[in-house]
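Task: fold both queries, return tokens.
Query 1:
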Amino acid sequence: MKWYNWILLPISLVYWIITSTRNLFFEIEIFKQNKFNIPIVGVGNITVGGTGKTPHSQYISELLQNNFKIAILSKGYGRRTKEFKYVNIDSNCDEVGDEPLQMKRNLPKEIVAVDHKRVNGVNKIMKEHPEINCIILDDAFQHRTVKIGFNILLCDYNNPIYNDWMLPVGLLRESKKGIKRADCVVISKCPENLTLEESNRIKKKLNFTKEVFFSKIIYDKIVSLNGNKTIEKSSLKKVLLVTGIANSSPIIEYLDKLNIQIKHLKYKDHFQYQKKDINKIIDNYKKENSEIIILTTEKDAQKMQEFEELSRFPVYYLKVSIDFIRNKDKFEEKIMKYVRAHS
């Protein structure tokens, strides 16, 4: 631990007391958990920052959509509204958030909604869409007012919770003991060559008695901002990379492996781009030669599509998905078994 974190340690202690007391009150039923007669799958994390909740929620949605009528409910982090809203393909990020909009555009036939009050959101979906027989709650591990039937906890391989500290010293939103509420743990963003020996070592350090799975990021196509065309990765020599996500390291490592030169404009997670930021991106592009493209993340692309001026430039985004390193069938069967039993 760095020296200045010792100054923050008392704040972390206070934060630990507050979150632990809150969790205790839910356990002993001083605080109410609302139960629903519909299967609810929760996808969340204990740490602040990107563990891959959106692609995992999308993976589960795609798994279930052929057999069940599903809806996805998110808080819609980063939006400027708080009330319940359905997400449409042509929605604005300011109203619904970038990640829910990304999911809706990837799953156009499914219901995607946002609400800061999850209980209200579940009730509204069930009332207005009685055909729905499964709800996926995105980023809901700490939102305990809804009783989640199957809780999936994501942990970043690059920042394991057993090495982390409570906020603000570290990135933990609550005590590591919160892992006990999970029905399974997925270690996300793993390297492709993760060995069984290392997997078992991580499981032992987690001290988690239920199933632990390991997933990896799949970088798919490089798609133009308007979605009309793709570009071959092998043709890229240099990119102006623009990211507004929690951790850009996996993308940078991926591009490095492809021997692609990178000029990086890095912004904070869920960054709300303004016209001046877009002008800065364009100015940086103009300083380079014609071989360069502007490359961004799929999440950032949802916001950049709102700026007409970018249509005159070669702006692309990197589509991502996830896959499991091993025991994929076992993970899928656990989800299907739970939803079938409670539908």
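Query 1 returned. Query 2:
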Amino acid sequence: MNYTEELAGFMANLALEDIPDHVRRLARVNAMDAAGVIIAGHAFLEHEQDGRLGRYLDLLPLADQATALGFHRRASLQTAGFANGTLSEVLDWQDTTMAARVHSGSGAVPAALAVAEWRGSTGADVVRALAVGYEVGARVGIAMQPSHWYEGFQATGTIGAIGAAAAAGSLMGFDPSQMANALGVAGFILAISNGDGVFHGYNVKPVHGGMAAQAGIQAALLVESGYEAGPLEGLEPRKHGFMNISSENVRPEILTDGLGSTWRSSVCSQKLYPVGLLIIGPIQVALALVKEHGIRAEQVESVLVTSYSDTLHFVGRHYTTTESTYVDAHLSLPYSVAAAIADGEYGWRQQSRRRITDPAVHDLASRVTVDVDKSMDETYPDDWPVRVEIALRDGRRVSDRLDKVTGCPNRPMTDPELARKFVGNVRDALGPDRAGKARDAFMALDTAASASEVVNLLRPEAV
């Protein structure tokens, strides 16, 4: 038996009662968080009069299998998965399994919700499927990272498809052989999601979440139709499976090490702000300083952010202009910190076209610099240490340091924090009463008799 088969066998035979309470809790809150982020992503596109995704959906054949959230339209399984996965990436507000470098929920949650609607699954079925999908994605990712990332691949589109396939296969009742084939087929058809498409401001960036969900669903449907594929780690003599051809340093034993006792997905983090994960800490500290000292943008001479090496490498040197896109904005530490200081808050409106076209925020961003403290690398990624110093024009300097940033593995977001985030993301679209009902339904997802009833709460009563 190869590693992929052993992993698939465990996941196919996994019963809900075998899943630890903390993993089941993560499945519930991650489903809620993802749904809120999807609806917020749709609200942002509407606000920006960005109709690209809607026009694309109009080009696809009509079907009535699952719901494209926000659009309130029925679609095929794959189309619904694609739409919801893409919306989950629009604001970069999704969950992250840091050690695997993957936004787990961007593929797994849309795939699971679509298949659950189609199959008439219960909430408990969805919780089990998400525990399976997140754990598979985490194990594949950790086995390949960070080499896969540094080779230029974005795991949300690649590894995310494998997690999505596992979630879909779970809901479709796959046996061990079918589950192994689902993982292998996903590794054969997944999108080649790349760093240039993410870190250079292209508006195609959110699509890799949609492709992960779509490919995961497609892999499961192909297996249901009789297709087979080899293991993710490859076969002798060349071992040209997905894992080995897209990562220099693969540790396939992680796929199976500690199955049932060690849950690699349990370190999944949710985001406090709609930005790249490496920017959350700088915003959190900057906002605390602004509030404590009553700082206004015109008082600021310069800002120095000191953090771990990845912060500088991926987001610290990314400066913006009035011509930049919202993708540039949420992956630029200087812009995000400047907008937070100027506005005293950070949400999706700080990524709007109206905000980005204001020269003043870019002028302030040009005076935000990032430095590296190598000692901070020692506790990353479990902690996300950061120090922010704001130099004021009157000569004062104010600063603070935070090691356990809200959302890092050593300081996860609490249920009340996640509930507030969800309600804030959906209240305008659903109304406060509906938002509260949807929140409560997700928090008790494993007791829901019908997953479709929970999904139906994500549309206004009048729709």
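Both queries returned. Flag for query 2: The chain has two domains: 3-267, 277-402.
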